[in-house]
Write a structure and sequence with these properties.
Layout lengths: L13 H25 L2 H9 L1 H13 L5 H20 L6 H22 L1
Helix pairs in contact: 2-5, 4-5
């Protein structure tokens, strides 16, 4: 069995681990902290709540990840929760409450999916 680079093993070299860690962990946290200093808290909360739906969309579009009916439903409920909390309830809620509501709706959808499988 070979990896995409033609090596006989699938282990990563230390340099590959450093690059992978920088791209997957360090860079997103640095950019999120930088953006949090420059944007209102509500925008940061919405961006943070939309991480999972956009990650799933990228996995679907670029990496061929299959999204079944239950995953689609869970993503739709999570996205609807974010939109509902921000647009429908408007200024009545703080950003933290909006994100908490979206997380609860998304968690319920995921828990229902796990219970059925």
């Amino acid at each position: 069995m070979t990896d995409p680079l033609g090596r006989k093993h699938a282990w990563l070299t230390p340099l590959e681990l450093v690059v992978l860690g920088a791209i997957n962990s360090a860079l997103p946290f640095i950019l999120f902290a930088w953006a949090a200093q420059r944007a209102p808290a509500g925008i940061g909360a919405i961006a943070n709540a939309m991480t999972v739906p956009f990650t799933t969309l990228i996995a679907f579009l670029f990496f061929g990840e299959r999204i079944g009916v239950w995953r689609s439903l869970a993503l739709a409920i999570g996205f609807t929760g974010v939109v509902w909390a921000r647009l429908i309830l408007g200024e009545a809620l703080t950003s933290s409450m909006a994100v908490a509501g979206a997380m609860i709706l998304g968690s319920v959808a995921i828990a229902q999916r796990a219970a059925k499988s």
